[in-house]
Amino acid sequence: MAESAYIHSIRKKFFSSRSAVSGVAGIIFLLIPAIFAPLIANGRPLLLIDGEGTWSMPFLRFFFAPESSEVWLEKIANFTALMLPAWLFYRLILRRKPVMRRVFTGATALICALLFILAEPVMDKRDYRQSAQRADFVIFAPVPYGPDEIAGTPYEPPSAKHLLGCDDVGRDLLSRLIYGARVSLAAGIFATLLALVIGVTVGMCTGFFKGKFDLFVMRIVEILLCFPTFLLLLILMSMMRDCKIGQSIPLLVAVIGCTAWISLAMLVRGEVLKESSLPYIQSCAVAGIPRWRIMFRHLLPNTVSCILISIPFMVAGAIMSESGLSFLGFGVQPPTASWGNLLRQAFDNPLSYWHLTFFPGLALFIAVLSFNFTGEGLRRAFDVKEV
């Protein structure tokens, strides 16, 4: 009862902050187009009925077997686009039957996963816009252009046909901006998850075991802390390029995640040192409770607040790192779209190609501001001194 009251109090304090609510709204505003990108921006019809009454959904096969250099990312995002509505539907109709809800959700997830695994990509170069002229009925996505489809002239300014204009080779900027959100947000989120695993593990172990182990590990952490993070990222990515390792999102996630855990480890270590000195932890040790149980059952839950507060700030930092690396040519490589390499296309003449500077920059601004506002809202919600 006391725990639910505490959670209710945190939720109330969080949503009473306008900046925190606007931060959550900004994150949702960016996540929804990123998750449902194939339904929003796609050059293939969502539904096509030809003159003989035969209907088809050309986009569907490429939904399960996307044509992309980052296939795993596209499949994860598309899987989420299927599972999110299914989970919400089961939650509404099976509110009072949690066991049935889990069964149906698990079965749906398994079927969807099999479809993504078994679907094989096919080469399809048909011009569906010409087919649509002969069809009885056709439905295109709101943005009827794929992210890699040349649909206009290079550096075409915004117009009724292309709302945000075109990039350096004539691809629709709005479509690439939506698919670029997948790359930038995924890089930020997955890199943060990796940094969380490393940082929490290192921080808890050093704070709990102390002694020579703590002394040795923290000296290594302090050495790593001496290097500017972005400079370290550039050095690592340059080394990977020299070793002929292709620049890809998994590599980017690994490099950013392995450099973003240091501050979190120091923060968790301080919280664990504080908690370890309290009587209830000493009583657990005297009672003979195993160390792993003390760490994960007692210490970890009491450090959750500082971890949760750090997550939004870490995601914002990882998004900026990915965009900076992509802008300099060390991150995600074309034709895969990301906000950073979209900004790079306007590097030669940013004033003439203002749409390539303004719109990706605005997306980055909204993302970083939203995650920072959310993190600040969490900090205020968990701070007992806040009124």
Question: What is the straight-line distance between the termini?
Answer: 22 Å
Number of helical runs?
A: 17
User: What name does CATH use for the topology of one domain?
Assistant: MetI-like fold
| Average pLDDT metric | 86
Main beta sheet: 3 strands, antiparallel
Description:
β1 and β2 form a beta hairpin. It contains 17 helices and three strands. α2 (18-35) crosses α8, α5 (71-93) runs antiparallel to α6 and α8 packs across α15 (304-327). It starts with a helix and ends in a 5-residue tail after the last helix. A three-stranded antiparallel beta sheet has the order 2-1-3, with no helix packed on it. It has a domain at 175-382: MetI-like (MetI-like fold, Orthogonal Bundle), CATH 1.10.3720. It is mainly α.
Structure at a glance:
The chain is 67% helix and 2% strand. It has 387 residues and is mainly α.
